[in-house]
Write a structure and sequence with these properties.
The structure is a homodimer. Chain A is mainly α and about 160 residues long. Chain A has five helices and two strands. The N terminus of chain A is likely disordered. Chains A and B meet through helix 1, helix 4 and helix 5 of A and helix 1, helix 4 and helix 5 of B. Chain B binds a DNA duplex (30 and 30 nucleotides) through helix 3.
DNA sequence: CGACGTGTACTAGATACCTAATACAGTAAG
DNA sequence: CTTACTGTATTAGGTATCTAGTACACGTCG
């Protein structure tokens, strides 16, 4: 299109600074409408459920994890606070935060309730994009194994 | 620890005005982090995919659907606009809005992409609540049939 | 013609979330 | 004690969403 312009390429406005991009613990999806603090909360619960974080193990400090995920420390602090209130984490003031000795697994009631709620959301979107039940199930199986494999790789 | 207070029971503070509660078309979940206009957009797509809304059928007016769902007309208008831009709906100005004659179904690429994305979110929450793959799949099958049945009942 | 319903556009306010920066209290190591 | 790190609290600003109210252009019907 441009004729014989000999100007050196535009100096790259760098819309994306895109520095290290570590993803040590788990990933944060900025496009997900769910709040970041909820994604962090769920991520920690996921790692505990998968055994990547065992009872008594120490979790990264608020500032470290914030730097790792490239979010604000306040956001991580909010997730840690909720996990502490829920009995998932235990904080030794001035020392650090650890996985609770007896990591509470959600009661079967609320566990099924949360799962059912998520299933309805997933089924709804599956139907809205014209997917059948079999395709939806296949995709879940694939995604489940992928998430497990991804966490095992980092454990 | 009030002693022998004989005051009649509190007159039911009625924290939820809870008026008609119609739910003619589909339901809106205020606790869902997804924006309401996206829930509406997905709901219309869902009804078309299930045949509850056939090509050429008229959809409720912006104000009617807004009153039905108890949301602001602007929110419904935003959803209708996106559906019109996407070729799902067609608007006859001053007359009304109708389902497009050739309702576009998402390309297989973006359809699979959206489905895969939703599947990852669902699998993640399933793992985080300590659910196994089988339970997660069972819940999806149950939810899928429930959504279909619910829409058939209103069609 | 006028009245009504349609989609659309605009302003303004309220709320939730994320970010930034700073400060404080407690613990461990030098 | 001093230093460094921990979680926690506070204030401020920016962005996105939802709400409310109003106004306009278009088409149908009486």
């Amino acid at each position: 299109m441009g004729a014989s312009v000999s100007v050196s390429d535009s100096p790259l406005p760098l819309p994306t600074p895109d520095p290290p991009l570590p993803t040590h613990m788990f990933a944060i999806n900025p496009t997900d409408p769910a709040p970041i603090w909820r994604q962090i909360e769920e991520g920690v619960r996921r790692m505990i459920a998968l055994g990547a974080l065992q009872p008594g193990a120490s979790v990264p400090s608020v500032r470290d994890l914030a730097k790792d995920l490239r979010v604000n420390p306040n956001t991580v602090a909010r997730a840690y606070q909720r996990l502490t209130e829920g009995g998932v984490l235990a904080v030794k003031r001035g020392e650090g935060t650890y996985v609770a000795d007896v990591p509470v697994q959600p009661r079967k009631n609320e566990r099924n309730e949360a799962l059912r709620d998520a299933a309805i959301r997933y089924a709804s979107t599956a139907i809205s994009v014209g997917s059948g039940l079999e395709d939806a199930v296949d995709e879940v199986e694939s995604a489940y194994e992928r998430v497990v494999r991804e966490h095992r790789r980092k454990a």
